[in-house]
Specification:
The structure is a single chain. This protein has helices spanning 39-52, 59-67, 71-89, 93-96, 101-108, 125-132, 136-144, 161-182, and strands at residues 12-14, 20-23, 26-29, 123-124, 158-159. The chain has 183 residues and is mainly alpha-helical. Strands 1-2-3 form a 3-stranded antiparallel sheet, with helices on one face. A hairpin with a 2-residue loop joins strand 2 and strand 3 (26-29). Helix 5 packs antiparallel against helix 8 (161-182), helix 6 (125-132) packs across helix 7 (136-144) and helix 6 (125-132) crosses helix 8. The protein starts with 11 loop residues before the first strand and ends with a helix.
């Protein structure tokens, strides 16, 4: 059986719903200032608050935004941006080798699958199920079992590229297991 993909969470990332952020893999709702975080991360939270919930920006956040950042803080933000790109766009070659050409295309451009013409990341469980030719219940079961990672949102779960690759690989492994059982 193929092992599920795992990764170290990025320290601070804007949530896909733009109503909070991920801190060490945990969803934090809203954009309240956190004086326990480094200045660069506090600046990011303040900037998100200004952009997505302008009425909720605190006086402390206004001051932080007006004061700017040190070069070290800007470098820290750049390195996080690279980590996010690596997390969402890069897969291990050996994992992608197990996918068909169509499946690789669907991972890159999910809207090219006939059942998901309007799909874009992050995907719904229904869209991942269509790509993997599984039921939505199976996708939820895999998520609950920790086999694929879902992004926490208000309401439904959403899935990134890594989860889509994992779902395609799990579906293939289950198909292989069923073929072996009937042989």
């Amino acid at each position: 059986m193929i092992e599920p993909m795992t990764f170290d969470p990025v320290r601070l990332v804007l949530a896909p719903t733009c109503d909070g952020y991920m801190l060490d893999g945990e969803f934090v709702g809203g954009f309240a200032d956190r004086d326990d975080l480094p200045a660069g991360q506090r600046y990011s939270i303040a900037a998100w608050a200004r952009r997505f919930t302008p009425d909720s920006v605190s006086d402390q956040q206004h001051q932080l935004l007006q004061s700017g950042q040190t070069p070290e803080d800007r470098d820290d933000r750049r390195s996080r941006r690279v980590d996010i790109q690596t997390l969402t766009h890069q897969h291990h070659d050996e994992e992608l080798d197990h996918l068909s050409d169509d499946q690789r295309r669907w991972v890159q451009w999910p809207h090219t699958h006939p059942a998901t013409p309007d799909a874009q990341y992050p995907l719904s469980a229904e869209q991942v199920a269509s790509l993997a030719q599984q039921t939505e219940q199976t996708i939820h079961a895999w998520t609950d079992a920790g086999k694929i990672a879902a992004l926490p949102t208000r309401g439904e779960r959403r899935y990134g590229r890594n989860a889509t690759v994992a779902a395609l690989l799990l579906a293939r492994a289950e198909d292989d297991d069923q073929v072996a059982e009937t042989a």
